[in-house]
């Protein structure tokens, strides 16, 4: 079931730096949103969790619309949602706190599936004790994505470490007293290379707690800041001094508080301008000035007092508040470059309005990078290449002309050029300058296999080897590796061999596999060799090429016992295509004078192979075409009565 939602149905912006519009509506009480390119098509898609009915919805972004699908149907209210590669298969999965069901849900992403079945349900924990907050992050520092989850019913934090592509429940920390862990973040508080897990605890005697991994893999729980009702937290270096700052939503006091970690402890300030019941907070550089800013949502009460506000940091380190929306009902907040223009936009979930609202960043980016991507050898444009600025994550797909454009900030960047069929290209030290455009072109390499035939259909002699030379070409830009094997050959697989087993072919070069047939049949039913020649390559998309083998054994025993042909004919030549020699099988039913000649496609005689008398029987004549040009030819057997028998030949050099 899905619903088509048209983008750009707007509401009026409250400030000049962001403009607001509704992205999605009528999905229920939206409480959280996660925005990523789940299907790897270059556009940002959405997953949304709802307070009621508690479902998770997947919104697949199209050029001018969002299409809604039900990713999970719940039996109770929902809370937070997060995205990460939880099974190390290269795509982004979704974890969801199904609060009313006491279940922790994992939705495994299968981008190759249709959108309606893209996410597959996996229950991580039943009876999880009121799951509330979830966060994807590498808390174990092993390079893969783990999962942190809080439970307000059991007042604890659960850690799920990813081991061999599975999330394992490795640790649980319970809080003393009646505390509700409502939010989590990851940050290196001590600047020692080890990330701490920060937990926002609700209740008037709550506060900020940290969980630190010990040398034996356990976690210690420490109270960092006390007596604050924290609904959510964000961590980052706000003032670029090398120390971690924490911004927290003080739910009961209706303000945003800021704490800075120093050598002697925590110093506390607050951001100007209050917010009724703040619910979520993020730290980002929204105006691309190199200084971190803050944005937050507020739940408010009875239609007012909450909303969305961002605080711009000035060069003196002070913060200036700007209200983007003052309506109540806002919960989850997601910073993302939704429109792919190089700056950070805001997506906010509003439960009362049942909407996801986008606050589009209108401050622009001071520079851009443009360029073209082409094949290294041919110079042809390469479409569908993902071009990404490694430092910012800004990316674009090349169009049919190989062109891309990245909206950037000023700096020096590394560009990644990635495509499933091409080797990744990395271009380092690409500078950008304020109010200017940088042009950076790139080339990409891949091997491309070229074959003269798609199957082998040959005639061979019994009890003697016949070798066909299969020419393999590489028309690409990178070395081609091809390995060959014969499978399913019958009646006897030993009758067919291929050598060598593997070829390494340079760009623009070619190589040859020798396929040898050595039938040895005394069985009058074994007139054919059937099988498959499999070529395993690093050519994309032709990683596996299968060529059918259909080989006729010419002089296998005749089931009728009749040793003389019933009719005169020129049988199919073998091997064909050939280089440089080919065998022409002849069956003569009536004695007489015959000629056997070769003609090119213009009718010119290329060779005269036989002139004379044939008695009834079977014969074979060879043509050695060393001096002939590559191309198509026709072999013609003609009787003295003028009857012609023909077969086609292909000479490949």
Shape field: elongated
State the secondary-structure class.
mainly beta
In CATH, what is the homologous superfamily of the largest domain? Answer: YVTN repeat-like/Quinoprotein amine dehydrogenase
Determine the fraction of residues in helical runs and give it as a percent range.
under 10%
Whole-number radius of gyration? 36 Å
Number of strands: 54
Low-confidence segments, ≥5 residues, pLDDT <50? 1-16
β-strand percent reads over 45%
Summary?
The protein is mainly β and 653 residues long. Helix content is 0%, strand content 57%.
What does this 3D model show about the protein?
- It is a single chain.
- The protein is elongated.
- The protein folds into five domains: 23-283, YVTN repeat-like/Quinoprotein amine dehydrogenase (Methylamine Dehydrogenase, Chain H); 284-364, no CATH class; 367-444, Sandwich (Immunoglobulin-like); 449-554, Immunoglobulin-like (Sandwich), CATH 2.60.40.10; 569-651, Immunoglobulin-like, CATH 2.60.40.
- The two termini are 58 Å apart.
- The chain is 0% helix and 57% strand.
- With 653 residues, it is mainly beta.
- It has no helices and 54 strands.
- The chain has a five-stranded antiparallel sheet with strand order 1-7-6-5-4, with no helix packed on it. It has a five-stranded antiparallel sheet with strand order 2-3-30-29-28, with no helix packed on it.
How are the SSEs placed, and which strands pair?
Layout: E1 2-6, E2 9-10, E3 18-25, E4 30-36, E5 45-50, E6 56-62, E7 65-72, E8 81-84, E9 93-98, E10 103-109, E11 119-126, E12 131-137, E13 146-151, E14 156-163, E15 166-174, E16 180-187, E17 196-202, E18 207-213, E19 219-226, E20 230-236, E21 245-250, E22 255-262, E23 265-270, E24 278-284, E25 293-298, E26 307-313, E27 319-325, E28 330-336, E29 345-350, E30 355-361, E31 367-375, E32 386-389, E33 395-397, E34 403-408, E35 411-419, E36 422-432, E37 436-439, E38 442-444, E39 449-450, E40 455-460, E41 466-474, E42 480-490, E43 496-499, E44 502-505, E45 510-517, E46 528-537, E47 544-553, E48 569-570, E49 581-588, E50 592-600, E51 605-614, E52 617-624, E53 631-639, E54 644-651
Parallel strand pairs: 31-37, 31-38, 40-47
Antiparallel strand pairs: 1-7, 2-3, 3-30, 4-5, 5-6, 6-7, 8-9, 9-10, 10-11, 12-13, 13-14, 14-15, 16-17, 17-18, 18-19, 20-21, 21-22, 22-23, 24-25, 25-26, 26-27, 28-29, 29-30, 31-34, 32-33, 32-35, 35-36, 39-41, 41-45, 42-44, 42-46, 43-45, 46-47, 48-49, 49-52, 50-51, 50-53, 53-54
